[in-house]
Structure formats: structure tokens, C-alpha cells
Amino acid sequence: MCGITGWIDWNSDLTTKANAIEKMTETLELRGPDATGTWLSRHCAFGHRRLSVMDPANGAQPMVRPAKGSDIHDCVLVYNGELYNAPELRKELESLGYRFRTTCDTEVLLLAYVEWGPNCLDKLNGIFAFAIWQTAEEKLFMARDRLGVKPLFYRREEGRFLFGSEPKSILAHPDVPAEIDAEGLAELFVIGPARTPGHGVWRNFNELKPGHFLQYDRNGMKTSAYWRLESAEHAEDVAGTAEKVRELLADTVERQLVSDVPICTLLSGGLDSSALTALAVEYYKRTGQGDVHTFSVDYVDNDKHFQAHDFQPNSDAPWIKRMTDYLSTVHHSVQFDTPELFQALEAAVLAKDTPGMADIDASLYLFCREIKKEATVAISGEAADEIFGGYPWFHREEALKAETFPWSLTTGLRSSVLSPELKEKLKPQEYLADRYAQAVAEVPHLPGEDETHRRMRRMSYLNITRFMPTLLDRKDRMSMAVGLEVRVPFCDHRLVEYVWNIPWEIKAAGTREKGILRKSLEGVLPDDVLYRKKSPYPKTHNPNYLTAVRTRLLERLNDPSCPLLPLINENRIRDLAATTDANSHLPWFGQLMSGPQLFAYLLQMDFWLREYEVKLVL
After folding, report:
1. Nearest CA to 516 among 162, 243, 194, 133?
2. On the chain, which terminus has fewer CB atoms closer than 10 Å, C or N?
């Protein structure tokens, strides 16, 4: 994986702007610690930071190859991602007469574009964000993978276009102010830590939507979807469906285990991570590649403070041991204490460029930092719950009938923490309702579906297009901040397309969440793990963490210069701080973000406003 950035300008000679593009590129150093490169022409400048995974000795970027049928014009590529079908594409291109100089997928992607243009996207299996400059036409082409695993932001203004893997690279441009307007604040306070697809939060920033490409030249800019979920009748019965799911998942895992650097899996002892690890172990045994290394995360004394509830019914530790013993992996257990978790809140903001999932982000950042000491690539179970229907809100009538996002039901609580002036400006209830209506209007319903199937398809769509991107963004930004590449097999578009059209009664086979996934893994996992009740990514239950974030937040509110004060209802926050204890449950966002995470999110907001010197344009 890597970091990419670029600058198109019709009114400047960018060959004189080397220092600027180098500064933009250097902001992405953590994403690509192994090498750096820039490419400049009169109206285009590209920057790239490389994390070497395939063919480390070659594949430097920006990569330049001749345009099709031309001896004098080139195509120039900067690319962040992995192509899992690169060997097949390489053979096809070689049969067409192309000769390769490297063994990396970067060259495969560039020559695929040279040969097929935008239609190459239909052939790609992978996770990617890339930009190509066509020197003859003076045209920029950018694209992002189907599920949006890899990020790509941009800012367009008169005569100029800027892009980057992260907002920080665009903010490093000398003419770009660090500003946020009312809509950006609405994203942070009303939608956040989720985000509306395509929204860049920062003023005049956008994110290229998943499954979209963008073209920009002197005539302007246009974006187009090259992939979207499509509804169709499902033909197989339960047994046939389970067999197909297992076949697709096994093929996906094997493709994603290819690497020229050390690779590992993340293992929680839950269904998703255990399945991926078991398939990896089976593949390693079959191909003689030795032992699989696994990693898990927990918190000091969490066993003493853990309290089971619907969202987190049991702790992971016994299940991790069950699986590592069963699979004979080389296991690495990582633990953090409250002070480390608290201190990493700021590092998580710097990685994300906005406030995020508070300690849920911070713990992942610390976890990835430890993994990076042993491996460069990790396999993770993200997205299975959204795709197969694993979250509790798929199975609760009140959530299914709620006319809002099921992970954000406490809109009254969210509104109550805003200052009256900001509440009037943002109109949080209306903003949320508009974003929800926009999402629901996109759902590709199947003609003739009854109300139950329509409702479940809508819930699946909301999760895949609105909730899953939050977790994918979290995983990318926290892992890449330490130079770790994380692959997510459940996001293979072939698997997503297939599971999308499985009827709910088959998807929930056996009346269990992710029932068809469980059935597909019979014989792969032991039964007790196979039918373990879902438990999400672990968070700290130590009351010291609540004390730490609450105390620091109150200290910040006592400072008259605190930039949060004009934005929040201070009395309401103080009341919450006084009444929230270790047993309180404030369902602020999703499964994991409650009272302590609300306080931590506000602390992240305060740090972000100060560190980035954010100017409010209201």
C-alpha cells in the first residue's frame, strides 16, 4: 500500500513547483515509509510514497509507460492498493504483445489502462485508488475500488485540481486553507464518526465515491459509477448457497495471501477472523509455506472489569486460545493499558485528519503499530457483519422499523450536546433525515419483493454503503499510519455481489446472525467457535479510562480559549460528565461508542480544532 497525491493546474507551470508537491507528498510518509517519488510536467505534478509489498526492488512510482500507439506521449500512474488478479491480467496483456519490466501489480494496472482505458476497471479484482495522467490529452483519470477500501480525496477550484490519499496532503498545498463550514460540522456532530459518501468534511473537499471514476481536463470534471449493487433473483438453495459462499471466500483468501513480505492474520476468536485464519492455515499447509502468525488485542485488567451485554456478550481471550490451539498458529497477544490508550487519541486524529471513533481508533492504531514490528501485511475480518447481516440491528424490530440509521438512534442525545446557536445552524434532525432519505432512495429493490424482503434489503444497503465505509476508513487510516497494509477478504466484490442477493431466510439460515456464513464453514471451524454469539472488536472496560477522558474534557472546558465552547452546550456536557459512571450506557454511536467515547470524541474535536488551526466558515 502507498500514499498518492497530485496537482493539476492550467494557470501555472508546475515544473517550478517541486517544493510544493514534495511537501504534499511528505505528509503521506507514514503510509509509504519505504520510498518516495515525484513527477512534474507543465500542468501536472504527481507525488507518491511507497510501502513495498510486491517486487520491493522494482515498481517505483510515479510509473511512466508509453500511451497506446504513441512514441512521444506517455501515461503516468500513481497508485495505492493491491490487485489480486494481477497474474491473470498480466498473462492477458502479454498475449496482446505487452512486455513487462517488473513483477509488481503497479505495472499491470498501468498497462491495463493503456490497453483498455476506463474499461479496465471492470477487469480489476482488488482494493485501489489511483490516478493516471495522459500527457497527449492533458487529462486526469482517477478511480477507486468498488467497496471503497482505499481512500481518495480531492478539491476542485477554478483552474486547479488537487487530490490525495488523505486530506492532509491537500491541506499541505500553500493555497489551501484549513476551513470547515456548517455542512462539515453537521457531518462531524450529526453523522460522525460515520460520513456521507463522497463528503470530504473539510470545506470544498470531496471523496471519490466507492465504485466511481473521475475524469478532469480543460473542459471540466465528471464522475461516473462503474459499479453498484444490482438486485437479482437468487437461484441456489441453502446447501448450494453455502457451498458457493465457501468457494468464493476460500478463493479470495488465497488470492490475498500472496505477498513478498511477512503476512499475518488478526484473530479475535470470533467467526469472521477465525474463518479467515483457518483458511489461511489450510492454504499454507497445502503450499508448504510454514506457520501462520496471528495477532490479538486486549486491555490490561479487562477481564476484571468486563460486563457482558447484548452488543458484547463475552470476552475474546478464551476463544482466541481455542483457535490458536486448534490451528497451531504462532500467536502474538498484544495488551494496552489506559494511559497508552488515552495518549493515542491524538495520534488517531492525526492519522484520520478529523475526529473519529475515539479509543476504538486509538486502540487499533496501537495494535497495528505492534503488528508492524513483525509483519507488513495483515488479513482482517472487516465487512462480514454488514454483508451477511451480523449486527444486532438486523434482528431487532425497533431498529428495522426506525426511520433513521440504526447505529445512530439517539438523535436527541446528539442534538442536546450542541450549543443552541450551532443547533439552529445545523438543524441536526433535518440533516440526518435528509441523509437517511438519500440513502434509502438509492436502494435497488427487486420488483415483486414483499415488505419483509424490502426491509432487509434496505437494512443491508444502509450497512454496506453507510456503516461499512466507517470501519474500512478506520482500518485503512490507523493501519497505514504505521505502514501496515491490511487486506479485507470479505470485501471481495464477487462475494459481496453474490451475498447481496441471497434472500434473508437463507442468509439467516438456522435463525442465527450470519447463518449462511456459519453453514458454509461447517467442517472448517469447531462447532463451538462456529456458533459463538457475535462479539465486536474489544474495547476497554476499565473505569480508569472513563475517569481519564472525563477529567481531561472538564479541564479543557475550564479553559476560556477552548475552541469547543462555542460549539457545545457546556451545561449539558457537564451534566453528562457528572452522571455517567462505569455502568452507564449512552448508546451514542454503533455498538461500541457510549459515554466514555462521547467524552473522548469531544476531546479529539478539541485537539483537532487546535492542532489543525481550523477556521470555521459559518
Report:
1. 243
2. C
Q: Are strands 179-181 and 615-617 parallel, antiparallel or unpaired?
A: parallel
* Alpha-carbon gap, residue 398 to 191, rounded angstroms: 20
Distance between CA 317 and CA 514 in Å, rounded?
A: 22
Annotated binding site: 105, 266, 297, 380-381
Sign of dihedral through CA atoms 271, 272, 274, 279? positive
pLDDT recorded at residue 336: 92
Q: What is the mean pLDDT of residues 35-41?
A: 96
Read off the pLDDT of each residue in 495-507 and give the average, rounded to a whole number: 97
Pairing of strands 74-83, 63-66: antiparallel
What single DSSP character describes residue 434?
H
H/E stretch holding 318: helix 317-327
Taken in order of first residue, the domains within the chain and their CATH numbers are 2-225 (3.60.20.10), 238-394+471-530 (3.40.50.620)
Catalytic residue among 2, 44, 120, 368: 2
Contact 597, 585 (CB under 8 A): no
Could you give the C-alpha distances from 464 to 193, 290, 445, 476, 492, in angstroms and in order? 16, 35, 15, 17, 13
Q: Is 311 exposed, middle or buried (0-12, 13-18, 19+ CB in 10 A)?
A: middle
Residue 533's nearest CA partner among 307, 250, 319, 325 is 319
CA distance 351 to 428: 27
Helix H or strand E encompassing 476? helix 468-480
Residue labelled with grid coordinates 479541564: 555
Examine the pLDDT at 321 and tell me if it is beyond 80: yes
The grid coordinates of residue 596 equal 466514555
CB-based burial label for 99 (10 Å; 0-12, 13-18, 19+): exposed
Are 253 and 520 a contacting pair, CB within 8 Å?
A: no
Q: Which residues are annotated as a binding site for ATP?
A: 266, 297, 380-381
Percent of the chain whose predicted confidence (pLDDT) is above 90: 86
pLDDT score for 316: 86
What are the residues whose beta carbons fall under 8 Å from the beta carbon of 490, sequence distance 6 or more? Answer: 249, 272, 381, 382, 383, 384, 387, 496
Cα–Cα dist 83/379, whole Å: 15
Please, how many CA atoms are within 13 Å of residue 226, restricted to the half-sphere of its CB?
A: 25
- For 268-320, write each residue's pLDDT tens digit: 999 999 999 999 999 999 999 999 999 999 998 887 766 655 555 567 889 99
What is the percent of the chain with per-residue pLDDT over 70, rounded to a whole number?
A: 98
Annotated binding site for L-glutamine: 105
Strand 2-9 versus strand 35-40 pairing type: unpaired
Q: What is the maximum alpha-carbon separation in the chain?
A: 72
Its pTM stands at 0.96
The whole-number average pLDDT for the span 544-548 is 94
CA distance 409 to 398: 10
Amino acid 512: pLDDT: 83
Q: Judge whether 79 and 50 are in contact, CB under 8 Å.
A: no
Question: How confident is the model over 214-266, as pLDDT tens digits?
Answer: 999 999 999 999 999 999 999 999 999 999 999 999 999 999 998 877 899 99
Q: What is the average per-residue pLDDT within 348-353?
A: 98
